[in-house]
Input
Amino acid sequence: MDEFYQQLVPSIIYKWTILNNHVDASNEQEIKFFNNQLDATIDFHENNILELSIDDKNTDKNVYYLHFEMKNIKTTVKHIQTFLSYLKKPHKEEKVMINDGQDMKILLSCSSGITTSYFASLMNDALKESKHNIHVDAISYMNLDSIIDQYDIVLLAPQIAYKYSELKEKYGNKIMVIDDTDFATYNVNHVLNQVFKKSMIID
Output
């Protein structure tokens, strides 16, 4: 991205969010949203880092968390819209629907592999009760070339969703993007179900 354009992104996103959601905000580093059940905050940090967070008032628990670098306006707006949609209507949990005899290796990928490593561990935990041979790993997208052939499906974290077209052209249909809400709420069951559906199409 052009350096001058990149410097403008936080300001553009801040103003767009306020104008389109009719929010009053005096602090240019933070925008807050409230409803009867949830408190939500958008925090603007240095180096174009945006942090989206939602807390449940009844439990005092964080129920939605996503941070990412604002690489472009289109992707950033999509992340914010998904965040605000969850604020209006939280998702419901679902069970993992595993096909009989399922055998699969799944690879998660983000910028460094750190955030997806935790998500991968949660996916593996969700599969522990299963007798099927399914395993999930995580890696930085910069290292995909050396390992991708060993995996059936590659899931990109929302933070690198902007690279989907590039990576799909390079690696084909095994590339998927994890939904913002699923990633931000650790909804591993829904992600696994989406992967199983995708694998049926590929096969």
Summary: The radius of gyration is 18 Å. Helices lie at 3-21, 73-88, 114-126, 164-171, 180-184, 188-202. Strands lie at 30-34, 38-45, 49-56, 61-69, 103-110, 133-140, 153-156, 175-177. The CA atoms of residues 176 and 182 lie 13 Å apart.
